[in-house]
Amino acid sequence: MAFTSFKNIAEVQKAYQIRYERKSDLIVPHPFQPSDRFTQTFEFLSNTIDIYSSEEMRKMAVIFPMLTDIYQHHDTAMVMWSEEYISVPDDDKLQGHPDFLISLRSQLGLTVLEKPFLIIAEAKEDNFTKGWGQCLAAMVAAQKLNRAIDVTAFGIVTNGQMWQFGHLKQDLFEQQESPISRPDAFGYLKAIFSATEDEIRGLGKQIN
Predict the structure, then answer these.
(1) Which of 38, 132, 161, 182 registers the highest number of CB atoms within 10 A of its CB?
(2) Tens digit of pLDDT for each residue in 130-147?
(3) Is the peptide bond before 116 cis (omega within 30 degrees of 0)?
């Protein structure tokens, strides 16, 4: 079994006793202007290929470029991974390859996947229900692997056009009430990356 075995949020809740709340103001977006490089590349791709033709194309042409446009402002504290395997010992339901994973930057370099695991992003074509089951399971895995490090795990599920956000703190999963359109998603992504960097910098000795 793996993260993909969960079909919705409720299945994860029942398996791991996770409480659920939905909020309209869970994440307050930060001002953010996409870079000229992103804007020019996105416009070119939009005019020359069908960027929403498949899940893989959405990941390569829309989701990854959007994430990296934010990530470049936080790369001294974090590292972004794609399809990196994570697993919780003794729990075969909490294993798999998140589409994107943001972790603490290791002092050993870019090749080392360091804890805590901070942000899980899942790229789905249209099935947000299943996407959130998979994403929340990966967030629970991240939380368990982080162990004593009391850090918020953020989750993102997107099809490139619409973006949904949530976070897991202890046994409470809170989800942004409404999906956010692609142009507006940058501000929410910026808020998540900024909050995550602030939190890990404040953890100090817990991380070392």
Answers:
(1) 132
(2) 999 999 999 999 999 998
(3) yes
Q: Which helix (H) or strand (E) holds 168?
A: strand 162-169
Question: E strands of 24-148, at which residues?
Answer: 78-81, 86-88, 91-96, 100-104, 114-123
- Global pTM? 0.94
Written as one letter, the residue type at 57 is M
| Count of structural domains, the chain | 1
* Cα 45 from Cα 120, distance rounded (Å): 26
CA distance 173 to 169: 7
**Chain position carrying tokens 């370099």:** 109
Q: List per-residue pLDDT tens for the chain, 208 residues long.
A: 589 999 999 999 999 999 999 999 999 999 999 999 999 999 999 999 999 999 999 999 999 999 999 999 999 999 999 999 999 998 999 999 999 999 999 999 999 999 999 999 999 888 999 999 999 999 999 999 998 778 899 999 999 999 999 999 999 999 999 999 999 999 999 999 999 999 888 776 455 4
Instruction: Return d(Cα 128, Cα 111) in angstroms, integer.
Output: 31
Domain that includes residue 21, residue range? 3-202
Cα–Cα distance measured from residue 62 to residue 45, given in angstroms and rounded to the nearest whole number: 9
The span from the CA of 205 to the CA of 9, in Å, is 33
Residue 83 lies in a domain: yes
Of 151, 148, 138, which Cα lies nearest the Cα of 195? 151
φ/ψ of residue 169, rounded to 5: -125, 115
CATH of the domain at 87: 3.90.1570
